[in-house]
Amino acid sequence: MRKPGMPLILLLVGVSCILASDSVQTNSSEKEDKFPLTLSRGWGDDLYWIQTYEEALYRSKTTNKPLMIIHHLEDCPHSQALKKVFSENNEIQKLAEQFVMINFIYETPDKHLYPDGQYVPRILFVDPSLTVRADITGRYSNRLYAYEPSDINLLISNMKKALKMLKPEL
Amino acid sequence: MRKPGMPLILLLVGVSCILASDSVQTNSSEKEDKFPLTLSRGWGDDLYWIQTYEEALYRSKTTNKPLMIIHHLEDCPHSQALKKVFSENNEIQKLAEQFVMINFIYETPDKHLYPDGQYVPRILFVDPSLTVRADITGRYSNRLYAYEPSDINLLISNMKKALKMLKPEL
């Protein structure tokens, strides 16, 4: 018997890949396709991508630009689909220039970067005050920071929201 | 008066750049030259380069390959000169395939990675047991982990030394 009021978290969304999944085999020609490895990893070759989390935090703080962190996996079809839309959308690419950009295919030890789990694709914003903008979410209640390709306009609006910095409380 | 036996550390070597130096101006065409940014940053485009320190440590431990960490700066002429020799030397590039490779233009918070200071270029090896091989040094007493282009054979011999793993003490 189910207790009254007990929430049913059964909504299954398409945006879920297990981190470090190796379910999709790489083919033999992939080495040639992938090299040299880029810091953009296909999310926008004309953007300036930061390598390390520490540098990203430092740059956000010192340049007063918000930080946009994309967690993804190269063999995750949901990540791939979002990446295609993201990299081909001019408004997104233009907006991204106003951010310190970093993308990870590997989790960092900072638990603030997985407030509701280590799934991909997952997009988080960090204010230059180094506060994670946990309030800027997508539309899936069980994976708050996930986006599908069809959510691109919500992502654009969330990027604009992130550009409005947090004000310190008086 | 100098105390007897007090070591004179006055040897000045050419391999020293201050981290985050901006003494060399970038020219206007550099944006076009640099993009897309690569993880190799010119140290070997055919090698598999890791992005984050955490992933590098994980991969070293799980694959039982030693980790080779190169700290450098893109506007440091000593780093550039070493990179040219490193990337064009077939023996180095072949040896590098037996390592987990990472290069940083930004310091990590792990103080084990700067046993004698934060200079560049600086090359450190980490054993798959996650022990920094502080014993594998170059030939400059004041910057133990620095190499000049003319030290390439010493670097090759040090890579071979790093491939001989540490054995746990019985």
TrEMBL record, chains A, B:
It is found in: Endoplasmic reticulum; Secreted. GO terms for cellular component: endoplasmic reticulum; extracellular region. Residues 1-20 form the signal peptide. InterPro entries: AGR/TXD (IPR051099), Thioredoxin-like_sf (IPR036249). The keyword Plastid does not apply. Keywords: Endoplasmic reticulum, Secreted, Signal. Belongs to the AGR family. This is Anterior gradient protein 2 homolog isoform X2. The gene is LOC115463427.
